[in-house]
Amino acid sequence: AQKITQTQPGMFVQEKEAVTLDCTYDTSDPSYGLFWYKQPSSGEMIFLIYQGSYDQQNATEGRYSLNFQKARKSANLVISASQLGDSAMYFCALDNFNKFYFGSGTKLNVKP
Amino acid sequence: DAGVTQSPTHLIKTRGQQVTLRCSPKSGHDTVSWYQQALGQGPQFIFQYYEEEERQRGNFPDRFSGHQFPNYSSELNVNALLLGDSALYLCASSLDRTGSGEQYFGPGTRLTVT
Lengths: 112, 114
Hints:
By secondary structure, chain A is mainly beta. Chain A is 0% helix and 53% strand.
């Protein structure tokens, strides 16, 4: 069964605008972690943000925030004030007892 | 503070051969995970090593095996290579604690099987 679903293969956003990348997950375990990673064309995976299943508040890291809706099993990434350097692939991932599941990714293009 | 390093950067092998990829974790990290990323896809979890033992394993055949050394570095071995094993192999390290932990990824090893 697919654990992580990213339904947006590609997204465009205008520079300086905000963008939301969608992610839904599937697990019946009460304890899990959710991650977002950025992968530029160079190939290296860059950690952006983490949300634990028991965290009461949505995680934020600078321009990145995670909109965590536990009942809907969604963990959307919000990037505020997009920059040209944000153009990359973005992956959502689920950590389920040290077993990691990545989505198929969303390719974000930031237009000047 | 060195991050996660992987060697080699690129590798070309022939079907049926065996390959060993190496990973050194970020300083202070004790857990290493390996992933296979085919072109245009998300990483697929191969396995995770902690305390020199395979702690978790994804949906990969026994041709994929690994090892973790006392200094926490790790190797990924793939036997009887198939064309479909061509991919970017990523290593990630983390510090074990109860629950999940942030992973730091290395630059990857690009394996081409001909």
